[in-house]
Amino acid sequence: MKGYKKIARVLFAAALATAGSVGIAAGPVQAAQNFDVCVGSACDLAYTQGTITWGNRTADVTGSVFDSGQGYTTAIFEAFAGSTKIDSETRTADDETSLGSPRGFNFNIGDPDLVGGIDRIKITVCITDSTQWCGSPVNYSK
User: How far apart are CA 62 and CA 58, in angstroms?
Assistant: First the structure.
């Protein structure tokens, strides 16, 4: 019986090594990147935070947008392949704060048919009342 167990372990190890070498054992590696973007000195009033999980051609974006004060806050997410804008999404909160219940989001951004996929996401946060005031955009690269 001992001999069979040893042979089974060797065969199992060989199968794992073969599967790994041809890419069967695991799917594409995805890297996660945290973000935290606000509007200038109003970081306690209007901001977004969360995680970008980079896929092969698109990215999953999860997180929350926070708003405290007059007007409302919009987080703008723009996906790029090089310098070409591929896709965009916005998420808005109105009087939703970290102390209360922030506006959560979970979406996919990019183009699943784009060869090479997206490699950068630009995030801008804006406060809108009677006018709109936006913070500096922040870029996150794959």
Answer: 13
Here the tokens at position 137 are 């955009």
13 part of a folded domain: no
Compute CA 105 distance to the chain's CA centroid, rounded to the nearest angstrom: 10
Indicate the pTM of the whole model.
0.77
79-98: string of b/e by CB count within 10 Å (b at 16+)? Answer: bbbeeeebbeeebbbeebbe
Three-state SS for 124?
A: strand
Tell me the sheet residues that pair with 79: 87, 121
Say which CATH number the domain at 36 has.
2.60.40
> Is residue 140 helix, strand or coil?
strand
Q: Which residue range(s) make up the domain with 121?
A: 28-141
CA distance 82 to 34: 21
Low-confidence ranges of the chain (pLDDT < 70): 1-29, 97-100
Q: Are 60 and 107 in contact (CB under 8 A)?
A: yes
